[in-house]
Design goal:
By secondary structure, this protein is an alpha/beta fold. The chain contains 8 helices and 5 strands. Helix 2 packs across helix 5 and helix 3 crosses helix 4. It is elongated and about 60 Å long.
Length: 204
């Protein structure tokens, strides 16, 4: 993965940023993105696509990434904004904001997925980038851990939806809770249309 990132290095490119998001699929909460820049020689054993790691592994890698990266930044777009502009645009917006918050200026930005945002620095979409790029994989871990922590805190206010366990994703228990208790203010209304009746959605 580190070799993938270093393959972009040349006399004009010395710093590579990786960007990824967490939370495109959940029924509630924000989408969170992270941007990470490493020195070309920095490597952390165990870094991989966050989806391939356990929560314990991600939590272990999180402080090491934070400590060894040249710069790490995060950004979130709320559930309400997701409803207004759709999840794709919200994801791209949060990734762009994360890049803008970096403490160092990268020479190239590797973006997980098949689409990228507009930025003065070249931003390249990398399909399945979180399993190819060390920087993107690191960003995926930071984004995932950050979002999971947010959902655990929000669970204290809305424990009936079991967010500490499902992190807002559409598990059977979460869907049953939405049907039983109705949506809360932090649910993405645009994601609930297939779950709740049109009559119920009209009342929201």
């Amino acid at each position: 993965m580190k070799n993938f990132d270093n393959s972009f290095l040349n006399e004009k490119i010395s710093l590579v940023a990786g960007v990824d998001e967490a939370g495109r699929g959940p029924l509630a909460g924000p989408v969170v993105s992270a941007a990470v820049v490493f020195d070309c020689d920095t490597f952390i054993e165990g870094v991989n696509d966050s989806k391939k790691l356990s929560e314990k592994e991600r939590e272990k890698l999180y402080p090491e990434i934070m400590d060894k990266a040249l710069s790490v930044s995060v950004a979130a777009v709320s559930h309400g904004q997701i409803d207004r502009i759709n999840i794709l645009q919200a994801s791209l917006s949060s990734m762009l904001t994360a890049v803008k918050r970096l403490g160092v200026q990268p020479d190239i930005i590797l973006v997980d997925g098949d689409k990228a945002f507009h930025h003065s620095t070249p931003a390249l979409p990398i399909v399945k980038g979180d399993s190819k790029s060390f920087a993107i994989a690191s960003a995926s871990i930071i984004a995932k851990v950050t979002r999971d922590r947010i959902m655990k805190r929000l669970n204290e206010y809305y424990p009936e939806y079991l967010w500490a366990k499902n992190k807002g994703y559409p598990t059977r228990q979460h869907i049953e809770a939405v049907k039983a208790f109705g949506p809360c203010p932090l649910h993405r209304k645009s994601f609930l249309r297939k779950i709740l009746s049109e009559e119920y959605m009209f009342e929201l």
